[in-house]
Amino acid sequence: MNRALIVIDVQNEYIDGSLRVTYPPLGVSVPNILAAMQAATGAHVPIVIVQHVAPESSPIFATGSHGGALLASVAEHPRSLLVDKTEDSAFDGTVLGAWLAAEEVDTITIAGYMTQNCDEATARDAVQRGFGVELLSDATGTLDFANEAGSISAQALHESVLVVLQSGFAAVTTTAEWVDALQTGAALSPSDIFASTAGARTRQTPAAASQETR
Question: How far apart are CA 171 and CA 108, in angstroms?
Answer without folding.
Answer: 10
